[in-house]
Amino acid sequence: MEGGLIVLAAALLLFLSPEVQGTAHLSFSNNTQVNITRDGCGVSKLCVETPNNCDPSGNSSCLFASAVSSVPVPPYGVDLSVELSGESAGYIAVGLTANASEGTSMLVICAQNSSDNGTFFFRTMQRNNTDNMLTPTETRVKEIRGMVNGNMIKCEFTVPNLNASNIRSSEATTFSVLLGNGSFDGSVLGAFNLLFGSKPLDLIKPDSNVPPTAAPTTTAPISNTTIMPSNTTMPSNTTMPSNTTMPSNTTMPSNTTMPSNTTMPNNSGALQPHAVLLLLSVLTLSVLLRV
Ligand SMILES: *[C@@H]1O[C@H](CO)[C@@H](O)[C@H](O)[C@H]1NC(C)=O
Ligand SMILES: *[C@@H]1O[C@H](CO)[C@@H](O)[C@H](O)[C@H]1NC(C)=O
Ligand SMILES: *[C@@H]1O[C@H](CO)[C@@H](O)[C@H](O)[C@H]1NC(C)=O
Ligand SMILES: *[C@@H]1O[C@H](CO)[C@@H](O)[C@H](O)[C@H]1NC(C)=O
Ligand SMILES: *[C@@H]1O[C@H](CO)[C@@H](O)[C@H](O)[C@H]1NC(C)=O
Ligand SMILES: *[C@@H]1O[C@H](CO)[C@@H](O)[C@H](O)[C@H]1NC(C)=O
Ligand SMILES: *[C@@H]1O[C@H](CO)[C@@H](O)[C@H](O)[C@H]1NC(C)=O
Ligand SMILES: *[C@@H]1O[C@H](CO)[C@@H](O)[C@H](O)[C@H]1NC(C)=O
Ligand SMILES: *[C@@H]1O[C@H](CO)[C@@H](O)[C@H](O)[C@H]1NC(C)=O
Ligand SMILES: *[C@@H]1O[C@H](CO)[C@@H](O)[C@H](O)[C@H]1NC(C)=O
Ligand SMILES: *[C@@H]1O[C@H](CO)[C@@H](O)[C@H](O)[C@H]1NC(C)=O
Ligand SMILES: *[C@@H]1O[C@H](CO)[C@@H](O)[C@H](O)[C@H]1NC(C)=O
């Protein structure tokens, strides 16, 4: 995607002097209704936000974005419908990047124009992830809707054919999603303050930002059948086989959230069922010894 976008942006910049930024690539919806909620997060739409789990329709400060992707059509990529909500006296922005620490991000900006009575303002920019510089781009965006209420800015839009030129078919829809804000005086967009950067998320999977819930039922098929006799006190002195040292330090994941990386941690994942089996075998052994 980046390569394609850069080439596209460079090609277009050849024809446009920097101060004459056309908006022909933007099409606005005449429906000004913007209603952004958490409804469907993780089920029908992918959501990112900061602070964690905040509610864009709620009372407290919440910078929130959601995305719904069309089914990918190989040569054309996906149409990505985005909602963005947050507070700023200038702009809020959502970015997509393959790697937040190198290359570039596609940044979509929703702003209030303080030199025009706080009216809604929309732009697409390219952010250099290394030096944070913003460069205007002509990314096509359609069905743009936006509203400003005080410092509350909300917008919805669709980026068509996202990733159309990308060859990485298997992960072509996987991006880190960035959230941030900045100043806007009516002509100059200030530096992008990165407030949140997600792990790589597959935009076509609404649940790709849902922490996997602990699923002991799947890892321990015994759970249903071997209900431990609740009050039979364990035989205290049945000498355990001395050498089967219990894996004392296999720290079970204390909470449900998986380790930050997206790839399943193979090692610790394999350890848990192992530890459970070991525990069960020891318990079974002690029960057998007692009988
Ligand atoms: C607004 O929307 C209506 C119905 O969708 C359409 O008929 C009309 O042409 C639109 N107006 C503009 C200015 O886009
Ligand atoms: C916003 O959408 C939610 C459902 O997504 C709905 O329950 C609510 O009534 C809507 N609010 C407005 C003001 O349209
Ligand atoms: C919204 O916030 C205001 C003050 O910030 C507070 O007085 C009010 O109770 C809040 N309403 C809800 C529904 O939380
Ligand atoms: C600014 O917007 C407010 C509310 O929309 C309106 O009442 C006011 O007249 C506007 N002022 C100017 C100078 O356009
Ligand atoms: C991003 O900025 C760095 C440092 O200024 C520069 O070396 C690099 O070429 C820039 N990348 C792009 C794509 O503009
Ligand atoms: C497992 O539990 C389910 C629901 O509690 C029950 O229907 C099923 O018979 C149980 N299976 C066994 C092997 O006990
Ligand atoms: C289990 O033990 C507890 C306390 O040791 C006792 O209060 C309870 O009645 C016992 N339950 C059964 C079913 O024996
Ligand atoms: C049980 O274990 C304790 C401590 O390990 C020991 O002092 C005691 O003699 C043992 N009792 C029997 C019956 O083995
Ligand atoms: C059992 O442990 C002892 C020392 O704790 C060790 O010398 C011995 O080799 C172990 N045996 C096995 C089978 O691991
Ligand atoms: C368990 O691991 C923690 C750190 O991972 C360590 O501080 C602690 O001493 C270990 N305990 C044992 C019994 O090995
Ligand atoms: C575990 O989660 C609970 C609630 O989700 C939270 O209160 C607690 O601080 C968490 N503990 C750790 C170690 O993250
Ligand atoms: C995630 O995993 C990759 C390699 O799989 C590694 O390079 C990277 O440092 C890891 N990141 C974190 C936060 O653990």
UniProtKB/TrEMBL annotation:
GO biological process terms, semicolon-separated: regulation of glutamate receptor signaling pathway; regulation of postsynaptic membrane neurotransmitter receptor levels
Q: Say if the entry is tagged with keyword Chloroplast.
A: no
Biased composition of type Low complexity is found at 228-267
Q: Which UniProt keywords apply?
A: Signal
Where would one find the signal peptide in this protein? 1-22
Extract the ranges annotated as region (Disordered).
214-267
> What PANTHER family does the annotation carry?
DOMON DOMAIN-CONTAINING PROTEIN FRRS1L
Put simply, this protein is called Ferric-chelate reductase 1 isoform X1
